[in-house]
UniProtKB/TrEMBL annotation:
Gene3D superfamilies: 3.40.1190.20. The lineage of its organism: Archaea, Methanobacteriati, Methanobacteriota, Stenosarchaea group, Halobacteria. It is an enzyme of class 2 (transferase). Belongs to the carbohydrate kinase PfkB family. InterPro entries: Carb_kinase_PfkB-like, Carboh/pur_kinase_PfkB_CS, KDG_KDGal_kin_Halo, PfkB_dom, Ribo/fructo_kinase, Ribokinase-like. PANTHER family: 2-DEHYDRO-3-DEOXYGLUCONOKINASE_2-DEHYDRO-3-DEOXYGALACTONOKINASE, SUGAR KINASE. This is Bifunctional 2-dehydro-3-deoxygluconokinase/2-dehydro-3-deoxygalactonokinase. Residues 1-297 form the Carbohydrate kinase PfkB domain. Keywords: Kinase, Transferase. GO terms for molecular function: kinase activity. Its EC number is 2.7.1.178. NCBIfam families: KDG_KDGal_kin_Halo (NF041332). The gene is kdgK1.
């Protein structure tokens, strides 16, 4: 039995060295990343027994992903397929004024054809928390139906369900996302949503608190966490609002910060902490992740606790 089970696609990330352009590069750094596996890794590094479920091709590249997750303490619950390929994406860092860019190459990944029969339903039923994101149902109508079945299966078994809207405009339009997500959200207990996604995708108005209350009224969530970028995060739980500022961080790699936040929040809540402490834990995990290369939150509980206690005011001495 795993305390946390996540479900979604994990890809290989190919990144030019800092300061190099993708169109001119002759070397790429390889990382493993996917929102749901990132959350599993972050939680595992914080002491949670975590597993990640998905489909992978039975190739060396598929094994590369499973190997990376095992190395971070996550159990891969993989259905291996003879067909398909590992999805990839390219991340080109660019400072101001150029900005950064992400290019996806994920057509043909076997998870697009995932059915409930491909998922470890018994492990989902036995988990304490089941987690997935809006990226997964964006991949295809079939996997959207499978995502819904997994959420319902978990909910019916008394498993707490957690979901991050995690909207990606390169995968679908706000209108298409809204149609699919509004069918999934009734099966969700804990919702993570960026303020911009609440406005643009879920078509909500007002400030973050107003949107959290409207979402709770509409779907009956146990907890709603609205992330506010540099302004931190807000959580609504049992009618009470808690706010959390961000912790300052020197950013080495920004990708996966939101996933790190979710992993820290869930890990602390699963340990029995109140929402206020879980928000701080999530914010600290996200800040520490930004100092680490790659998508995964390779952090320790001691580092997170030290940052929370320090309040981010000074560098933490070792």
């Amino acid at each position: 039995m795993s305390e946390l089970v996540t479900f979604g696609e994990t890809m290989l990330r190919l990144t030019p060295p800092r300061g190099h352009r993708l169109s001119r590069v002759d070397r790429l750094d390889v990382h493993v990343g996917g929102a749901e596996s990132n959350v599993a890794v972050g939680a595992a590094n914080l002491g949670v027994d975590a597993a990640w479920a998905s489909l992978l091709p039975a190739t060396d590249l598929g094994e590369r992903i499973a190997y990376a997750l095992r190395g971070e303490g996550v159990e891969p619950l993989v259905t291996w397929t003879e067909m398909g390929r590992v999805g990839t994406y390219y991340f080109e860092r660019g400072g101001m004024p150029r900005g950064r860019d992400v290019i996806y190459d994920r057509e043909g990944a076997p998870i697009r054809d995932a059915t409930p029969a491909d998922a470890p339903l018994d492990r989902v039923r036995d988990a304490e928390v089941f987690f997935t994101t809006g990226i997964t149902p964006a991949l295809s109508e079939k996997v959207a139906e499978t995502t819904g079945t997994l959420l319902e299966t978990a909910r019916d078994a008394g498993v707490r369900t957690a979901f991050d809207v995690n909207y990606r405009e390169k995968l679908w339009s706000p209108a298409a996302a809204r149609t699919t997500l509004t069918n999934l959200l009734p099966s969700v207990d804990v919702l993570f949503v960026a303020e911009r996604d609440a406005r643009e995708v879920l078509a909500l108005d007002g400030d973050a608190e107003r949107m959290a209350r409207d979402l709770t009224a509409e779907y009956g969530f146990e907890t709603v966490v609205v992330t506010l970028g540099e302004e931190g995060a807000l959580a609504l739980h049992d009618g009470s609002v808690t706010r959390q500022e961000t912790f300052p961080a020197d950013t080495v790699d920004p990708l996966g910060s939101g996933d790190a936040f979710a992993s820290g929040f869930l890990a602390e809540r699963m340990d029995g902490a109140p929402v206020e402490d879980a928000l701080a834990y999530g914010a600290a995990t996200a800040a520490l992740k930004r100092t680490v290369e790659g998508d995964m939150a390779r952090v320790s509980p001691d580092e997170v606790r030290a940052l929370v206690e320090d309040g981010g005011k000074t560098d933490i001495e070792r």
